[in-house]
Structure prediction request, 342 residues.
Amino acid sequence: MVDLTTRYLGLELRSPIVASASPLTRPADTARRIQDAGAAAIVMPSLFEEEILHEEISLNRALEAGSEHFAEALDYFPAIDDFADAGERYLADLDRIKAACSVPVIASLNATSTGGWVRYATLLEAAGADAIELNLYHVAADPTRSGQDMEHADLEIIAAVRAGTRLPLSVKLSPYYSAMANFAARAVAAGADGLVVFNRFYQPDLDLDTLEVVPRVELSTQWELRLPLRWIAILRPQLPHRASLAATSGVSAGTDVVKAVMVGADVAMMTSALLRHGPGHLTTVEAELVAWMDTHDYASISQLRGSATSATSEDPSAFERANYMKTLHAWTAPNELTPRSP
Ligand SMILES: Cc1cc2nc3c(=O)[nH]c(=O)nc-3n(C[C@H](O)[C@H](O)[C@H](O)COP(=O)(O)O)c2cc1C
Prediction:
């Protein structure tokens, strides 16, 4: 029997296969199907800061109007109900998922500032979340803000949420930090118990018939796993042992989970594969993982974990440069481009 158990953010999981944040992980019935198909933990989709701010602004406006013009305030109140309590609705959904599922449920916050998150972290803890994933999703499009400014702001958010809860805290990173290893280490020092590597940024397209921007979500391909694989291999030997690592982007088959664990991930997360094939795909992925480990004589996930990182640990930058040169030199030209001898 292969032992699939792993530890992630201090939580004991029955396997390293986790369902990442997506529209599938919010309704309690699909969350339950995902668990029953084999997910060892479930990450809820993010509660966005803007949703909460939008409500709070609307509520304040209505209350101000109420004190000055009562008749107008009456008009405001039905509108408040429409988008009232994005936070409350999120907490209610978390409560339903907790009632339906026995695996750990990780709530996700998408923050752009420190305000309000401490309060929400406390509320999520009270509502039964087993951990919080902080989704730091932003595009550095402001020319007046340096990389240092942006990193400093992110670290402040991590520290503020850390201070607001005793729950395990993971931070979902984008791949666009200019000095990834440095930022990852500082994120852990600021209070992250684990890093989720990497979030996918959605690239809008242009529709040439309507001349409009098309905010299309493309599901990932397996090829995209290479970026998290490379960075987890680089980060694992350099981060404190207590820091967990999760691979996300391009995980689709059992062999992808093998690769993620081999480079040092504690868990591998899936969204696109579940949206494509449905929750039942998790059962296939687990069977593939077990079959691979059996065939290659790995008895446990702890034996497999990190078995491919040691080569990079001495001098990661030199290792990466050497590999870059080797890869470029290894390219072989198709026949028609090969120079003929005279
Ligand atoms: C439709 C959709 C919705 C998503 N919503 C969230 C979200 O609310 N919060 C978040 O952190 N990630 C969100 N993600 C990102 C996924 O959790 C995941 O990190 C990403 O899709 C890469 O994994 P994959 O290759 O398995 O899809 C979403 C992805 C998709 C496709």
User: Anything to note?
Assistant: The first helix runs from residue 28 to 37. Residues 65-84 have pLDDT under 50 and may be disordered. Residues 224 and 250 are 5 Å apart (CA to CA).
